[in-house]
Amino acid sequence: MCLAIPSKIVKIENNLGIIDVDGVQRTASLLLLEDPKVGEYVIVHAGFAIKKIDEEAAMETLMVLREALAFAEKEKPAA
What gap in Å lies between CA 21 and CA 8, rounded to an integer? Predict the structure, then answer.
């Protein structure tokens, strides 16, 4: 199973992009995308940006993921 988290392209250099999710930045290949641009949101799998998504969908997905994380943290048994 794969969980793809929307990431924003913040820099592009030689078909590599620096992508950002909540301040965490990573490098991803942009070779599979047509005309990627700084500021666009992408889905990344195994180090490759595989699909562009619009900002509204990215924000909605990130909100749901944050809610799921908050719920999981709340439900953790005490150590």
Answer: 7
53 SS3 class: strand
Could you tell me the CATH number of the domain that includes residue 54?
A: 2.30.30.140
Which pLDDT tens digit goes with each residue over 5-36?
Answer: 899 999 999 999 999 998 999 999 999 999 99
Rounded CA-CA distance 19/49 in Å is 9
The CA distance from 26 to 28, in Å, is: 7
Residues ≥6 apart with Cβ < 8 Å to 30: 9, 12, 15, 16, 17, 36, 42, 49
